[in-house]
Amino acid sequence: MKRFLGAVGAVILGMAALPALAGEIEIGNATLRPPVVAGGNGAAFFTITNHGPADRLIAAAATAARSVELHTHIRDGDVLRMRKVDAIAVPAQGQAELKPGGDHVMLFGLDPAATGPGAHVPLTLTFERAGDIQIEVPVAALPAAASGHHGAHGDQ
Amino acid sequence: MINNTVKAAGLIAVLAVLLILVAALNPGLSERISQGLALVTSPRLDTGFTLTDPTGKTVTDRDYRGRYMLVFFGYTFCPDVCPTTLTVLAGALDHLDAATAAKIVPVFVSLDPERDSPAVMGQYVAAFSPAIVGLTGSADAIAQVKKSYRVYSAKVEGSAPDLYTIDHSALLYLIGPDGRFRATIDPGHSAAGLAAELSRAVQ
């Protein structure tokens, strides 16, 4: 019985690592950039692959954040303006990439308890056609933690 | 008198032709000349500031004389542009040899004095690289440094009063060891690209 439960656990863990699939929409390469300062803002990035007709990501929700919005960046000379958008288009049989400096899911006021190292933040994505898709977004490490920096720079 | 003027004009003409020839034969040099001209024609910025470091101490630009300053403006609630740029910057410092990296002080200046206390700035920059200095100040001090560096920023209202974001200029400013403005650098680079640009600029 124990062995059986272990096997089930392994299957569930294995599934968590796979891209989220909801029929025609597939979410891959998901990552969440956590706030540095507790209670600050974070951003989620991922690739949406659409195996069906044109669709639109129209909302995102996360219980770990005070507010969630879909954002894009508008470059205006040297100034970058981050703006809320109503939807992010996903072309038929195509992809939409949410990446740094472009589109992202903005998570305002993230709960520090939900974004520690190694955590996964549950995020619900709502598509106009495909409906709701639940994903678990792994929290990325911040650069200093990732590179194992401790002393002054130039010590590599 | 006329003779001297003609001679001087002739000499200038000969020098100009020589310069054009040398530049034509040496594309690297002509590029450097045009870069030099670009720098000469860049706006003369007042690079001075009086701000507060993470320990609460007042610091000015003079405290960093003798090293290059790489100044970047942003805010700690910034979810994308600031962390992306600071990540590229931290990576660029790792790419540089220790001697070159030691010549540069990266300075991150808050455009959000309301939320960014000195302690918050210290915590923020430490997450990217221990080499980066995080500075903030009073609303007046920040307004002054914005004016000096000709930095644009504007609050954008969010869904709650404390959830505002800030539109802002996203350039890196390179200041020489003498405190003079040298160049602006577009941060849309890879860490390796920025490192190459910095090692050229600080030689």
Describe this structure in words.
- The complex is a heterodimer of chains A (156) and B (203).
- Chain A is mostly beta strands and 156 residues long.
- Chain A has one domain: Immunoglobulin-like.
- Helix content of chain A is 13%, strand content 46%.
- In chain A, strands 1, 2, 3, 5, 6, 8 and 9 form a seven-stranded antiparallel beta sheet that branches.
- In chain A, strand 5 and strand 6 form a beta hairpin.
- Chain A is globular, with a radius of gyration of 18 Å.
- Chain A starts with a helix and ends in a 10-residue tail after the last helix.
- In chain B, a hairpin with an 8-residue loop joins strand 6 and strand 7 (165-169).
- Helix content of chain B is 44%, strand content 20%.
- Chain B is an alpha/beta fold.
- The radius of gyration of chain B is 21 Å and the shape is globular.
- Chain B contains seven helices and nine strands.
- In chain B, the strands form three sheets. Chain B has a five-stranded mixed beta sheet.
- Mean pLDDT of chain B is 85; it is low at 27-41.
- Chain B has two domains: 2-41; 50-201, Glutaredoxin, CATH 3.40.30.
- At the A-B interface, strand 5, strand 6, strand 9 and helix 2 of A face helix 3, helix 4, helix 5 and strand 7 of B.
- Chain A: It comes from Magnetospirillum fulvum MGU-K5.
- Chain A: It holds the Pfam family PCuAC.
- Chain A: Keywords: Signal.
- Chain A: This is Copper chaperone PCu(A)C.
- Chain A: Residues 1-22 form the signal peptide.
Query: What is the number of helices of chain A?
Result: 2
Number of helices of chain B: 7
- Sketch the major β-sheet of chain A: 7 strands, antiparallel
Low confidence ranges of chain A: 6-17, 150-156
**Alpha-carbon distance between the termini of chain A?**
50 Å
Topology order of chain A in helix (H) and strand (E) letters: HEEEEEEEEEEEH
Order of strands in the sheet with most strands of chain B: 5-4-3-8-9
Biggest pleated sheet of chain B: 5 strands, mixed
Oligomer: heterodimer
Q: Quote the CATH topology of the largest domain in chain B.
A: Glutaredoxin
Strand content of chain B: 15-25%
Low-pLDDT segments of chain B = 27-41
Tell me the name of the CATH homologous superfamily of the largest domain in chain B.
Answer: Glutaredoxin
Total strands of chain B: 9
Q: How are helices and strands ordered from N to C of chain B?
A: HHEEEHHEHEHEEEEH
User: How large is the share of residues in beta strands of chain A?
Assistant: over 45%
Given the C-alpha coordinates, what overall shape of chain B results? globular
- CATH superfamily placement of chain A: PCu(A)C copper chaperone
The count of domains of chain B is 2
